[in-house]
Amino acid sequence: MAAAERCLQRLRTDYIDLFLYNLARRGIELDLLPWCGAHGVVPMAYSPLEQGRLDWGGALGEAATAVGATPRQVALAWTLRLPRIVSVVKSANEDHVQENSAALSLRLPDPVLGLLDRAYPAPNAPVPLESL
């Protein structure tokens, strides 16, 4: 509980809400993320790796090569690219935990973000809130 309190203090909020958010599910970007920002709610992305179903080759593989990281690290760093957003990743594999933690310091340059935006475009109209 003390760790959760420290997290809330660091984020300067009393409110965190959980949303399905990853490269393949960007529906909250259009209206929900701006609303959260305006109302002091910190979004927590769950399933940032889409339960392992993202295409680890293609654009993610290309982005990973460009930044010297793994596709999983790129996908996770992508969810953390915005200020005041947190991400929760489930892993029972110690190697994956180490790999995931390295994504915290990974910054994606604009060309890589552009590549990912083209491969996984944000919606241009409201979509229903998704969940797993």
Describe this structure in words.
There is one protein chain. Helix 2 (about 30-40) links the parallel strand 1 and strand 2 (about 40-45). The protein has a single domain (about 1-120), classed as Alpha-Beta Barrel (TIM Barrel). Strands 1-2-3 form a three-stranded parallel sheet, with helices on one face. The radius of gyration is 15 Å and the shape is globular. It has helices spanning about 1-10, 30-40, 60-65, 70-80, 95-100, 110-120; strands at about 15-20, 40-45, 85-90. Helix 3 (about 60-65) crosses helix 4 (about 70-80) and helix 3 runs antiparallel to helix 6. About 40% of the residues lie in helices and about 10% in strands. The chain has six helices and three strands; from the N terminus they run H-E-H-E-H-H-E-H-H. With about 130 residues, the chain is of the alpha/beta class.
Write a brief structural summary.
The protein is of the alpha/beta class and 132 residues long.
The whole-number mean of residue pLDDT values reads: 89
Give unreliable regions as ranges: none
Largest sheet geometry = 3 strands, parallel
Q: Strand order of the main beta sheet, please?
A: 1-2-3
Domain tally: 1
Q: What is the CATH-assigned architecture?
A: Alpha-Beta Barrel
User: Roughly how many Å is the radius of gyration?
Assistant: 15 Å
CATH class: Alpha Beta
Key structural traits:
132 residues, TIM Barrel, alpha/beta
